[in-house]
Every structure is written in structure tokens, then in C-alpha cells.
Amino acid sequence: MTPGKTRTHLVWDWNGTLLDDIHAVIHATNAAFAEVELAPLTLEQYREMYCVPIPRFYQRLLGRLPTKAEWERMDDIFHRYYAERRVACGLTAGAEDLLAQWKLAGHSQSLLSMYGHEHLVPVVRGYGIESHFVRVDGRTGPSGGSKALHMERHFEALAGVGGISPENSVVIGDAVDDAVAAAHVGARAVLYTGGSHSRSSLLAAGVPVVDSLGEAVALAETFSA
């Protein structure tokens, strides 16, 4: 590391970023849509329409917000079908090596996901990569919201770990909401095209957009100050 430079901390997203699960997500989404008689979406249609909070995504397709009962049924169906398909999903190409190399170089990294915390931790452990992170946090509370407040809490927890601060951190994710959450705490963001959004949707976030996780990490390294 060049003298005077601060080490960059990476905050990784999980679904659609480190975990290559977009096809499981599409399958589960279409199962949930069938509950309210919505036509299934293709991958391209999903990426063009997807947004958070999730009820707003459903509103784009229904023409109205789902009722509370509809939302609860659709959310339950989504998670049930997703859990069945997730077990066949692998890590994104190159992810394991990137995590290992970043740690070996003496850098820190953490994981923040909107996947429920009680499910996330054992899943990450099952992929054999938990030891690469100084912290793994999943969503607590109801599903369907934004990552911003979770990002706040994530950095509050990281504050005592080697001087990690948002100003010296880069969030790597696949959704516009990752960039929004990063900006909310004062971190930078790089967005990856392999997950939930189309490239054009990601570019609208006003942050760098890349087609591989390797590009994301290389770009994050240039942010060191």
C-alpha cells in the first residue's frame, strides 16, 4: 500500500452479487406472481421492472399496491420457492478467489444482505466463505424495505473494527438500492450487472457500473485516499 493511503473496506451484497442466484429469484418471483394471476416475467423484463421496496415492484405490474393479505401471501410463496432453488446456486464466478485475495492483502471486508439474518449466516457458512468477513449481517425485521437503515446499523457495528468507516468503504452490489444505502452513510458504491437490474437501470444510480466482480474490486482499490 502506498504510504499515506487508507485501506479500503469492502461491503459486499449477497443475493445477485456474491451468490449467483438470479434464476432462483426469477422462479420464486413468478411463483408469487401466479398467486395474484400475474403473467410470468423473463429475466430481461424482471431487470427492467425491479425496484425496492418490493411492494412498489409489485405495484408496477399490478397497477396498484398489493393488499396486506396479498403481500403476505406473495412474500411467503417467494421465500418458500426461493429456498428450494437456492441450494443449487453457486457463488458468482471468481468470487471466492477475490474474497481470499482481498483478505490476504490485509484488507477488510464485510457482508450486508437483505436476506433474513437467521437464514443468511448459516448459508454463508455453508459456502465456506464466512471467515473472509469481519462481519456478516442480514436483514432483521420485515422483508421488502430498503437497505439504508441496515447499512447504518452495519457501520455502527463496524465502528470498533480497525477504524472502519463509511468514508473509507466501498459497497459492491447489484441493485440501485445498494448505491442508495451507500450514499445514505457516506460510502462509495460500485454496481454489478449480473443480478437484479439492467445496466440502464444501474447507470441511473450515478455510480460506476461493471460487468464482473473482478472489475468491481479493481475499481474499489482506486478509491483509496
CATH homology superfamily of the largest domain: HAD superfamily/HAD-like
Q: Would you report the number of β strands?
A: 6
- What top-tier CATH class of the largest domain fits best? Alpha Beta
Major beta sheet, specifics? 6 strands, parallel
What's the pLDDT, averaged over the residues?
93
Integer tally of domains: 2
Low-confidence stretches: none
Counting DSSP H or I runs of 4 or more residues, the number of helices is 10
Pfam family, one: Hydrolase
GO cellular component, one term: cytosol
GO molecular function: phosphoglycolate phosphatase activity
Keywords: Hydrolase
Question: What do these coordinates show?
Answer:
The protein has 225 residues and is of the alpha/beta class. The protein has two domains: 9-18 and 92-223, Rossmann fold (3-Layer(aba) Sandwich); 22-87. The chain contains ten helices and six strands; from the N terminus they run βαααααβαβαβαβαβα. It has helices spanning 22-35, 43-49, 54-62, 68-86, 95-104, 117-126, 148-158, 176-185, 199-203, 213-221; strands at 9-12, 109-116, 136-139, 169-173, 188-192, 209-210. Strand 5 (188-192), helix 9 and strand 6 form a beta-alpha-beta unit. Helix 1 (22-35) runs antiparallel to helix 4 and helix 7 (148-158) crosses helix 8 (176-185). The longest helix is centred in the middle third of the chain and has 19 residues, at 68-86. The chain is globular and about 50 Å long. The mean pLDDT is 93.
